[in-house]
């Protein structure tokens, strides 16, 4: 078997995702006959059938499913290699930090100050991104290090926990639940979350600890569209919109304590929920990284976190 080319993998991924040669060809900006020939040549080269074709449909074989998964990873790695090489070749190198605004546990100013004192420090470029976009930024080479909450798929990255902090319930100040001395997640059944879904009535349900509130900002959980929210016309919600809708009684939210402190509003009450899981903030970076600047940023972040909240570190 000869070495596969990135072009072959791109062609196959387009067909495997569209499951239609015509749509895949349109997506790639080419005609269908050469695309069909390229996929047949790939099957011949691998000596395995990747697609089952009939006059009605195209489906993946088990071998095709494996190649689709691996090809996506390979294409992403090639793109990331190019972006990292471009970044390394800049006349003024820097460290790119991916993070969601406000999701730094209140530590970022001190981390940046401590990092600047390290001999290996480089100028920091903040890559401010939406909910769940920090990990892809590490994988595709557009960021060198990221601040984000766990859990997430840690394949291909190294992780260092910084702090664990409570999450609170944010709800309208005039909501009857705001007058309750104690609350549990089960008390919130039916209330709408910022991703448009209601809190389930299942008494064993616990909201996830990572990006649960912010899926609205990227249109819903992966592979899903965000459910329509009664009385709200919006495809994307940013933090300011979420806060406003909470104040109006249209939704509830589970922000970490540090975010709640930054967004006090007269119309919002922040309450403790006894069985709400906390949020753990971590620093993540590509596993293959050997950057002295990344190592220096890690030292600064862990030192600041240990000094600022020794009891809060996992």
Record keyword descriptors for this entry.
single chain, 314 residues, alpha/beta, Arc Repressor Mutant, subunit A, D-Maltodextrin-Binding Protein, domain 2, 3 domains, five-stranded mixed sheet, two-stranded antiparallel sheet
What is the total tally of β strands? 9
Strand order of the largest sheet: 4-3-5-9-6
Order of helices and strands: HHHEEHEHEHEEEHHEEH
Strand content: 5-15%
Major sheet characteristics: 5 strands, mixed
Averaged pLDDT = 85
Q: Which class of the largest domain in CATH terms?
A: Alpha Beta
The helix count comes to 9
CATH topology of the largest domain: D-Maltodextrin-Binding Protein, domain 2
Which consecutive residue ranges, at least 5 long each, have pLDDT under 50? 212-226
General shape: flat
Percent helix range: 25-40%
Rg for CA atoms: 23 Å
Ends distance: 48 Å
Question: Structural class of the helices, strands and pairings?
Answer: alpha/beta
Q: Per CATH, which architecture of the largest domain?
A: 3-Layer(aba) Sandwich
How many domains is the backbone divided into?
3
């Amino acid at each position: 078997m000869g070495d596969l080319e990135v072009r072959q993998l791109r062609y196959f991924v387009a067909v495997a995702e569209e499951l239609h040669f015509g749509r895949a060809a349109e997506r790639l900006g080419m005609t269908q006959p050469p695309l069909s020939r390229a996929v047949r040549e790939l099957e011949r080269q691998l000596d395995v059938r990747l697609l089952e074709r009939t006059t009605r449909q195209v489906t993946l074989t088990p071998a095709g499913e494996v190649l689709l998964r691996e090809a996506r990873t390979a294409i992403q790695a090639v793109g990331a290699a190019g972006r990292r090489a471009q970044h390394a070749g800049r006349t003024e190198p820097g460290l790119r930090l991916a993070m969601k605004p406000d999701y730094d546990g209140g530590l970022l100013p001190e981390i940046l100050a401590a990092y600047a004192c390290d001999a290996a420090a480089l100028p920091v470029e903040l890559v401010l991104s939406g909910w769940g976009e920090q990990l892809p930024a590490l994988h595709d080479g557009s960021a060198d290090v990221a601040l984000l909450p766990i859990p997430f798929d840690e394949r291909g990255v190294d992780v260092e926990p910084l702090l664990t902090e409570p999450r609170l319930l944010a709800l309208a100040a005039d909501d009857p639940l705001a007058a309750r001395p104690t609350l549990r997640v089960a008390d919130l059944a039916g209330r709408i979350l910022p991703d448009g879904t209601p809190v389930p009535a299942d008494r064993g349900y616990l909201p996830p600890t990572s990006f649960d509130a912010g899926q609205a900002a990227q249109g819903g959980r992966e592979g899903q569209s965000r459910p329509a929210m009664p009385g709200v016309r919006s495809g994307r919600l940013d933090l300011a919109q979420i806060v406003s809708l909470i104040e109006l009684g249209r939704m509830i939210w589970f922000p970490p304590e540090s975010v709640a402190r930054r967004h006090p509003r007269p119309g919002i009450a922040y309450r403790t929920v006894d069985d709400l899981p906390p949020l753990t903030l971590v620093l993540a970076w590509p596993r293959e990284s050997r950057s002295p600047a990344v190592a220096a940023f890690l030292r600064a972040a862990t030192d600041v976190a240990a000094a600022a909240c020794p009891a809060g570190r996992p």
